[in-house]
Write a structure and sequence with these properties.
Layout (H helix, E strand, L loop, with lengths): L3 E7 L9 H7 L1 H19 L5 E6 L14 E5 L5 H14 L4 E5 L8 H10 L5 E5 L5 E6 L17 H11 L4 E3 L14 H6 L2
Parallel strand pairs: 1-2, 1-4, 2-3, 5-7
Antiparallel strand pairs: 4-6, 5-6
Helix pairs in contact: 1-2
Length: 200
């Protein structure tokens, strides 16, 4: 078994369940269109990665993305807050024997295969790698071991997430590196022109 893996958190695209903050301004159908495009981008940048890939759906559903089962393994997030879900996913894969694991969502249109490969490479020299987002969160986290402290007492979906995570790492004296700052797509103002055209 390869000792590297990536966790992809996603929702199966269904009307009314995708990008709810965006839907508040553009409507549920347009938000779904944007989310489907984000999922296609996520597929494009991960399908050729030279490490194992796990799709962690947010709930158990009979539906799955039409992506090859030979490339992507299916898993499910536990029902708790975002920190608990991320922590559990990391714990599951470390228990399988992986030594370097990345986690991403499916809402970063700027993310590339090269950035993911760079992040995995950085884990050869550091215990943790983080991809900071412009809104103060992060779009990527990579670990070489399970560190549950990174997922507790964090105010998720705020501009404090990246800062509080790095403060925890420094307090625990855990080495880390970062990748380039990118934008997550949560609201209309985050959309690049190409996605605005999609729903115009």
């Amino acid at each position: 078994m390869d000792n590297k893996a990536i966790i992809i958190f996603l929702k199966y695209p269904e009307l009314g369940r995708s990008k709810t903050r965006l839907a508040a301004t553009v409507g549920a159908e347009n938000a779904l269109k944007v989310y489907q495009e984000l999922l296609e981008h996520t597929h494009l940048i991960t399908k050729d990665l030279n490490f194992d890939k796990y799709l962690f759906y947010d709930k158990v559903t009979p539906y799955k993305m039409p992506w090859s089962d030979d490339i992507y393994q299916t898993a499910y997030q536990v029902e708790t807050d975002l920190g608990g879900r991320m922590s559990n996913a990391f714990e599951q894969l470390f228990q399988k024997g992986y030594e370097r694991i990345l986690i991403i969502g499916s809402d970063c249109y700027d993310l590339t295969q090269e950035i993911l490969e760079e992040a995995m490479q950085k884990l050869k020299n550091k215990e943790v790698v983080i991809g900071p987002a412009k809104d103060g969160g992060y779009y990527l986290l990579g670990l070489t071991r399970w560190i549950p402290e990174l997922f507790t007492d964090v105010k998720w979906s705020t501009d404090e997430v990246f800062k509080s995570t790095t403060e925890t790492l420094e307090k625990l004296q855990i080495s880390y590196d970062t990748t380039t700052i990118l934008s997550d797509i949560d609201v209309y103002e985050d959309l690049p022109d190409s996605l605005k055209l999609l729903i115009s």
